Amino acid sequence: MIHSTLPLSRTGVGRPKRATAEGSTGSGRAWHPWPLPFAHGRTRAGVTLAQVAAPVALITAITLAATFAPLAIHLSPLLVAAPTSTAAFASSRFTAGTALVASAAMFVVDRHDGLLHSPLLPIHIGALLVVSGFVVAARAVHDRDLRELTQVRAVAEAAQRVVLRPLPRQLGPLRVACTYRAAAAHALVGGDLYAAARTDRATRFLIGDVRGKGLPAVEDASALLGAFREAAYQHATLPELTAALERSVRRHLAQLTDSDPESSERFITALLVEVPDETSLAQVISCGHPQPLRGRRGQVTALPIPHPAPPLGLAGTAPDAYHVDTFEFGPTDTLLLYTDGIIEARNATGGFYPILERASTWTWECPRTLLHHINHDVDIHTGGRLEDDLALVAIQCTPEPGTGHAPPSSELTPTP
User: Fold this and answer.
1) In 3D, which of 162, 252, 248, 244 has the Cα closest to residue 204?
2) How far apart (Å, rounded) are the C-alpha atoms in residues 333 and 204?
3) Exposed e or buried b per residue across 173-185, where buried means at least 16 C-beta atoms within 10 angstroms of its C-beta
4) DSSP secondary-structure letter at 392?
5) Pairing state of beta strands 325-328 and 268-276?
6) CA-to-CA distance for 293 and 392, rounded, in angstroms?
7) pTM > 0.70: yes or no
8) What is the residue-level pLDDT of the chain in tens, covering all 416 positions?
9) Region class of 40: left (phi > 0), else alpha (psi between -120 and 50), else beta
């Protein structure tokens, strides 16, 4: 059991290197790993001039070189480089236009070389047009595939965002920020999960980590999130809610037995937190999940969980199987929930990220700033390479009116 108290520092660091989710499954903005400046025959403002300049400069340079070269040296065949190189970054229409301009330049160069009535002129132009035709056709196929890929990616992003919905920045008296970083390339959702539910008298949070990776992990995470979003409003106590989630996870895994014989070995570590509106306390139930951190009065504490339950899928189905740990959580206190993606993040020498040591360097006054600092710090430790999914949720209890510590109004704006 880790229980450490560390002094807080106001030392801040910059933003995370990698795209992260703050208040959403992305960074608040959609991040696309594939820049598409020429997709579908379109150009973006600010790069059109550079796009046009490259083939024009190449054609101009070859034409001028041929003008000053001896007549016995024919440089016009080099003009085929203009459409072939253009196809690497431009649309099929732009490549076809470049081929026509190169053909005109070839006619001018061959005429200068005295080949106007020679059979070499039609051979040169014909060869350029044939090569350009193949290049344009290949580019057209590429553009079609790119359109399909863009559409598939848009659908995949929409589906992933439905699975892991963004958390509002304000839930009752609580300020909230969240980060999600999937280890899989181009993925927004993995085996980690978080959710929140606002009831009449309290706010409930769930953070979890599915055993395994890939699509099976996403399926398990989706099942638990769906169960929480429904059960969080139906059960009065946190043990009753946790027992209901255990039953839902067991039903989900039982349905997978025929298609996945190893489903009985799957489980989900989870941490459930309830923050009542009228008390300065937080209730926590841990199902094999890493213990949360609390920033309070200039100190960072790893909250002890003396009686954790087994992970969901392996735990009990009755409420009395779960022990509730209660902690003080008053105005300006900040609670950090996280998955093991952060504590198992390794540096180049294989060392784990020392979360308790680094906690003293974070700025805990603002949940959003806190998560920015953590992500940046983890990137420094790992060199920007994460081998596991990472989910973070920061929760701050807002001061009571009249204390003089009210949060900035910009921080109370709901996440769009």
Assistant:
1) 244
2) 17
3) bbbbbbbbbbbbe
4) E
5) unpaired
6) 11
7) no
8) 444 444 444 333 333 334 444 444 443 333 333 333 333 334 443 346 777 788 889 999 999 998 888 888 888 899 999 998 888 888 888 889 999 999 999 999 988 888 888 888 899 999 999 999 999 999 999 889 989 988 888 877 777 777 888 899 999 999 999 998 887 766 777 889 999 999 988 999 999 999 876 666 888 999 999 999 999 999 999 999 999 999 999 999 888 877 776 667 789 999 999 999 988 899 999 999 999 999 987 789 999 999 999 999 999 999 999 999 999 999 989 999 999 989 989 998 889 999 988 888 888 989 999 999 999 999 999 888 888 889 999 999 987 554 444 443 333 333 33
9) left
- DSSP type of residue 406: P
d(CA 269, CA 258): 24
161 φ/ψ angles, rounded to the nearest 5 degrees: -70, -25
Task: Provide the CB-side half-sphere exposure for 398 (13 A, CA).
Answer: 18
**Structure-token pair, residue 286:** 């841990």
DSSP result, 253-319:
HHHTTTT-GGGGG--EEEEEEEEESSSSEEEEEEEBPPPPEEEETTEEEE---SSPBPPBTTS-SSG
Segments of 123-223 assigned E as strands: 170-171, 174-181, 192-198, 202-210
Phi, psi angles (nearest 5°) of residue 82: -65, -55
